[in-house]
Design brief:
It is a single chain. With about 425 residues, the chain is of the alpha/beta class. It has 2 domains: about 120 residues, Response regulator (Rossmann fold); about 250 residues, Rossmann fold, CATH 3.40.50. It is built from 18 helices and 13 strands. The strands form 2 sheets. It has an 8-stranded mixed beta sheet, with helices on both faces. It has a 5-stranded parallel beta sheet with strand order 2-1-3-4-5, sandwiched between helices. Strand 1, helix 1 and strand 2 form a beta-alpha-beta unit. This is Pilus assembly protein CpaE.
Length: about 425
């Protein structure tokens, strides 16, 4: 429940509420509460169920004490309590189950402390004093780094944009130790969680269906933790369930990410540029992932042109991914000529590394450590960090050239004749 506290709410909250199951706890709490100058009538009977019912219609207190002795499913009941608690409420739970795993799970869910019954007066005083100190501790300290929002966009399906997004998020969180959020906006077929051997949960689906619920507490509960510094928000929505949204939920999520993390990586399907162009409004960096093919060249030109017009503040990095050894469909030189800019990072194709990454449930960058693929992923990380630190206006000018059709026609004329002969033979 220790979501980011919202200034200005202190005056609207009672300092303390309690919901207990037995007379002994009720009487002891009433005495201690009176000692601390709080109203003893705020100590109520009824336990967890009464707490949820009461807080669903009244403002949450600064500190909440709730007795879980009658709870058959403590973790599920804590989640129900979280639904009705306002951000910032400091929760102390009590119960009769002496289980280290339960204790850890309850702390991970956001409660401040768990007291084993029967508890004594001194133990209760210490827990309440600590909860009070937590509530009034300074919040929203200035982050060590400015927030970096990176959008990763594939120019074609199958170019490996999701692999690049997960690898970049993993590198930011491990190599630079920056708290990082990975947002996979392919709601039905996203692979961010799958790539790290995690269950996606319903967090993103819930956010789209109920944007009004999105706050710091929602972020804490809905995101899946891949590590101490990396959290993922994704979904596997049923394919017969269209996600109807105006994009407001995505905007709110990004706002919360800026408060809770130092970096955000967005795995952004290219159709989102059409449906929700505002998603690019705060992207510091855009990683355009492509392959060295004619179709990818065409769509790279289109995406780069769109970014120049609609997200001029974003620094663009072009990544050629899964580049096969030997002669590609289009040479790097000809590809760069067609898009009128250099490819920033070239990541070679390695079938063994790709297969191992999938089998182990690890990101491509983690699996490819010490390999050319891993070195290229690390180069991308340094390019993203470097681009974020550069002046906004540097390196953004692009040449004005022919129309899109003209560029494609010119590129077609450079394709080796043997490829044309093969195409003719197939026909």
């Amino acid at each position: 429940m220790n979501a980011p506290w919202k200034p200005g709410m202190t005056g609207q909250r009672d300092p303390f509420h309690a919901f207990v199951c037995d007379d002994h706890s009720h009487d002891l709490l009433s005495v201690i509460v009176s000692e601390m100058g709080w109203a003893p009538e705020k100590v109520n009977k009824g336990g967890m169920r009464n707490a949820v019912q009461s807080l669903s219609v009244t403002a949450s207190p600064q500190i909440l004490f709730v007795d879980m002795s009658e709870s058959g499913d403590p973790l599920n009941d804590i989640n129900s309590l979280a639904e009705v608690c306002e951000p910032g409420t400091v929760v102390i739970a009590a119960g009769q189950v002496n289980d280290v795993r339960l204790y850890r799970d309850l702390l991970a869910s956001g409660i401040q402390d768990y007291l084993l019954k029967p508890f004594g007066a001194d133990q209760l005083r210490d827990a309440l004093a600590q909860a009070q100190a937590v509530f009034f501790a300074p919040r929203d300290a200035a982050p060590e780094h400015s927030h970096i929002t990176t959008a990763v966009i594939g120019t074609r399906g199958g170019v490996g944009a999701s692999s690049i997004a997960t690898s970049l998020a993993w590198l930011l969180s491990t190599k630079h130790q920056r708290p990082t959020a990975l947002l996979d906006l392919d709601v039905h077929f996203g692979t961010a969680a799958l790539a790290m051997d995690l269950e996606p949960g319903r967090g993103l689906t819930d956010a789209i269906e109920n944007p009004s619920r999105i706050d710091g507490l929602f972020i804490e509960r809905a995101m899946v933790r891949a590590s101490e510094t990396l959290a993922i928000l994704s979904a596997e929505a049923p394919i017969n369930q269209p996600m109807m949204t105006d994009g407001g939920a995505f905007y709110q999520l990004l706002e919360e990410f800026r408060s809770a993390f130092e970096c955000t990586v967005i795995d952004l399907p290219r159709n989102m540029l059409i449906q929700h162009p505002h998603l690019m409004g705060d992207a510091n960096i855009t990683v355009v992932v492509t392959e060295l093919t004619l179709a990818a060249a065409r769509d790279s030109i289109r995406v780069l042109s769109w970014l120049k017009s609609n997200a001029p503040q974003s620094r663009v990095l072009v990544v050629a991914n899964r580049v096969h050894p030997g002669v590609p469909e289009i040479s790097r030189k000809d590809f760069e000529a067609s898009i009128e800019r250099k490819i920033d990072i070239l990541i070679p194709f390695d079938l063994r590394i790709a297969a191992q990454s999938a089998k182990l449930g690890k990101t491509l960058a983690e699996t490819a450590k010490g390999n050319k693929v891993g070195a290229a992923c690390f180069s991308l990380l340094e390019a993203v960090i470097g681009a974020a630190e550069e002046d906004e206006g540097d390196g953004k000018a692009t040449k004005k050239g022919d129309s899109l059709l003209g560029k494609i026609a010119s590129l077609k004329s450079r394709i080796p004749a043997r490829r044309k002969d093969k195409a003719a033979a197939r026909n």
